[in-house]
Design goal:
- With 205 residues, the chain is an alpha/beta fold.
- It has helices spanning 14-24, 44-51, 66-79, 96-101, 122-129, 164-187, and strands at 3-9, 31-38, 56-58, 84-87, 106-110, 133-140, 150-157, 191-194, 197-200.
- It has two domains: 1-103, Rossmann fold; 108-205, 3-Layer(aba) Sandwich (Rossmann fold).
- Helix content is 35%, strand content 25%.
- The strands form two sheets. Strands 3-2-1-4-5-6-7 form a seven-stranded mixed sheet, with helices on both faces. Strands 8-9 form a two-stranded antiparallel sheet.
- The longest helix has 24 residues, at 164-187.
């Protein structure tokens, strides 16, 4: 039986598309995207999921308290029997209720080398701070913003002629690569968590 992934998104869904393409190309074997949920109508990522024939739900978040909303989303994901929840540009902080419903089964991708530059516009934060390396991080999600244990990271050198846009583009390419790699590690159970450290176990031959 393929492992079932639920994706939450709010916008264009480029990381969702990268995961879907990795499944199609067998870079993520024995996996399928069982459901894509958006918190607003008109999110481009939902249209992309529909075009691929993937089940979708739009559950509007406007006007709802965080936990009340999360209960609706969790119920939809549980109904779809998902094994792993992947955030792909999902612009909401998850409630303790949601985290407890999917323990160590929620991943996020963030465009910085956490714990540096959490939150919005991380690429711009890094660029304006003058660091020499930016990058991206796949991490488990907890109740705090961009703070869960780190699964994988990729560094991207900042060039003297970079702009925020050119840097963001190179970071995005790395996001697509390491998100697939991290999802595969988690679905295959090739990890353990010690404190805040996510330690990998060797791939079975």
């Amino acid at each position: 039986m393929p492992k079932r992934i639920g994706v939450l998104l709010s916008g264009r869904g480029s990381n969702f598309e990268a995961l879907a393409e990795s499944i199609r190309a067998a870079r993520l074997p024995n996996a399928e995207i069982a459901l894509v949920v958006a918190n607003r109508e008109g999110a481009p990522g939902i249209e992309k999921a529909r075009a691929r024939g993937i089940p979708t739900r739009v559950i509007a978040s406007k006007g709802l308290e965080r936990e009340a909303y999360d209960r609706k989303v969790a119920a939809a994901l549980q109904e779809a029997k998902v094994d792993l929840v992947c955030l792909a540009g999902y612009m909401r902080l998850l409630s303790p209720y949601f985290i407890a419903a999917f323990p160590q089964r929620i991943l996020n991708i963030h465009p910085s080398l956490l714990p540096s530059f959490p939150g919005l516009e991380a690429q711009r934060q890094a660029f304006e701070h003058g660091v020499k390396f930016a990058g991206c991080t796949v991490h488990f999600v907890d109740e705090n913003l961009d703070a869960g244990p780190i699964v994988l990271q990729a560094a991207v050198a900042i060039r003297d002629d970079d702009t925020v846009e050119s840097l963001s583009e190179r970071i995005l390419a790395e996001e697509h690569r390491i998100y697939t790699e991290a999802v595969r590690i988690i679905l295959e159970g090739r990890f353990r968590i010690e404190g805040r450290r996510v330690l990998m176990t060797p791939e079975k031959k």
